[in-house]
Amino acid sequence: MILRKIAIAVGVVSVAATCAFAQDPIQTRQAAMKFVGGAAKQAGGMLKGEKPYDAEVALAALTKMNEVASVFANYFPEGSETGGETTVSPKIWEDMAGFQAAVAKFEADTAAAVAAAPADLDAFKAAFGAVGANCGTCHKAYRVSKN
Predict the structure, then answer these.
(1) Average pLDDT in the chain
(2) H helices of the chain, where?
(3) For residues 12-24, b (16+ Cβ closer than 10 Å) or e, as one string?
(4) Per-residue pLDDT, 102
């Protein structure tokens, strides 16, 4: 029942994001990253031992990340390089193939983590390792530092 609710929630976010994208790709990608950030926060609490491990919460976090990863590269059309309070790097448009490859790797790693359905904390740590590494790699290469 809980997984069904998660699937419905993910679907609703996906539809909402698609509709929003038609309006404003900058707002859409920022909302998508906040969604991923929320999932990462849930995961991080368990990984750091601040919260007890919960396999359903872990799978939901990974599923949220994978849902965004599957469409995220679409939120960077020409003309959306600036505006709003975007922190994307111009390097995305200079190296779109590299950016798309980074997003594809994130999608593949999150899909593998979802498929693994980690039953315990050690399995979650192993599955989440590659997922988390993707975040840092992409942010370093394709996001302007907020410092």
Answers:
(1) 88
(2) 2-23, 25-47, 55-69, 91-94, 96-116, 121-142
(3) ebbeebeebbeee
(4) 96
Split at pLDDT 50, 70, 90, the class of 21 is very low
Residue 84 gets the label, from left (phi > 0), alpha (psi -120 to 50) or beta, of left
How many residues are listed for the chain in this entry? 147
Number of Cβ within a 10 Å radius of residue 126: 12
Question: What domains appear along the chain, each with residue ranges and CATH number?
Answer: 2-142 (1.20.120.10)
DSSP, collapsed to helix, strand or coil, labels residue 147 as coil
Give Rg (Cα) of the chain: 15
Q: Which candidate, 138, 136, 145, 118, places its Cα nearest to that of 61?
A: 118
- Tokens 């809980």 belong to residue: 2
83 — pLDDT class (breaks 50, 70, 90)? confident
Question: In terms of C-beta density within 10 A (0-12 exposed, 13-18 middle, 19 or more buried), how is residue 132 classed?
Answer: middle
